[in-house]
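CORE FACILITY INTAKE
Project code: CF-77B
Contact: R.S. (postdoc)
Sample description: multi-component assembly, two entities in total
Requested service: structural model of the whole complex
Turnaround: standard
Below are the sequence entries exactly as provided by the requester. Do not edit them.
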Amino acid sequence: MLNIHKLILSLTLVLLFGVCGVTWAASDAEETTSDSLSATEQDWTQLDDDEEELVVWDPIEPFNRGIFWFNDKLYFYALKPVARGYRAALPEPVRESVGNFFHNLAAPVRIANALLQLKGRKAVDESLKCVFNSTFGLAGLFDLGVGLPANTDGEDFGQTLGHYGTSAGFYLVIPVLGPSNARDAVGRVADSLAHPVSSPYYLQMKQLEVIGVRVHQTVNHLSLDKDTYESIKKEALDPYLFVRNAYMQNRAARINK
Amino acid sequence: MRCFKILILISCWLSLCVLPAYSAASPKAQVQATVDQVIDVLRDKQLQGEPRRQTLSRMIRARFNFNIMSQRTLGKYWRTATEAEQERFVSLFSELLEASYIGRIEDYSDETVSYGEEKIEENRADVATTVHSGNTHIPIDYRLVLKGDDWFVYDVVIEEVSLIRNYRSTYGEIVRKENFSGLFKRMEEKIAELRQSSGETTGQ
């Protein structure tokens, strides 16, 4: 318990000092010279009006790249082989049900964050979905399609912070867990306090049990994944930069929703 | 009852006649046409190896505007590049995107694509699609620009991540650190890698 509180405290401090993290550069508009372009020709080097240039603040890039390298090895030498064995042992519908179960289990986190952001409709939809799936859907194993579409990404505390104007802070690659940033790392800790499995307030599972559940969840997720990371690694000129930008874009879009 | 059936038949027949003509200019219909063509090729077991790759390449090049994509990817570096560098970039970038795209769709199995709404604003359009694969549903939006009668893709947004904006950050950083020569070298290596691995899977 004490450890978690200490961690939150230290991360909050880090966040306070790093609030100026992501800056939305005005896509260097002042540099634009129209001399090479006729009046009718559009300047395609500029982004659209509804797009913003995303500049990621990554002051600890060498450190992050080290963790990225470690996670890469962990993925290929441990998680993926286990996921392959797991996939061979269990048929897909079973693994999908397990995925539904874990998704449903995290409903309290999503509902709480929807409420914190005063998104009433979303909170109601999430709650209805959770109630129906937990009962008629046999503890969440089956998604009955009430409320929201299956596996909709829900709200989390990182998004709640972002919703109220907290900027991302510096980019951070977390060992085992992957891409994050100062704000979302704080969000993760807060969410873990609300999550039934890791919360110290209700089920009160032991540390080892919590890790076991988390590993199972990850392996199950990977067993259903179609080699997303492999594709990125194969295609991107620099997978680290690809993941960094994709993570930040995705988070920014989800906060604005 | 019989009258009702005839009515249905007539309306089906009418919609068949009317739809293609009506949708000729719609960005959604054009995206759908290309996606359907690509899926047909992927389902065709007769077509394999190099001929298949070339057919796919032709279809992709007819719908994607690699020139605009290149300009957006390089951003301010496009303006500082020489004409030769620009040409070289467009050619490498098209090859790279094509090789990536073909590599991704080659292991197509039972995925289906559904089409959401289209938003048109002057000469720009946004077409929302969703790729369904088992329990996962991946939103893929196409951003298009109108040139003549045709709509051309200039960005693909997968799960809220714009590919061009993503490339823009990576490529910009590489040009800044390693100049165009460094970027071209990296791109060439990547294309060779992708070609090789896709050659392996298609059994060439």
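Facility notes:
- Chain B touches chain A through 39 residues (CB under 8 Å).
- Chain B is about 65% helix and 20% strand.
Invoice: internal transfer
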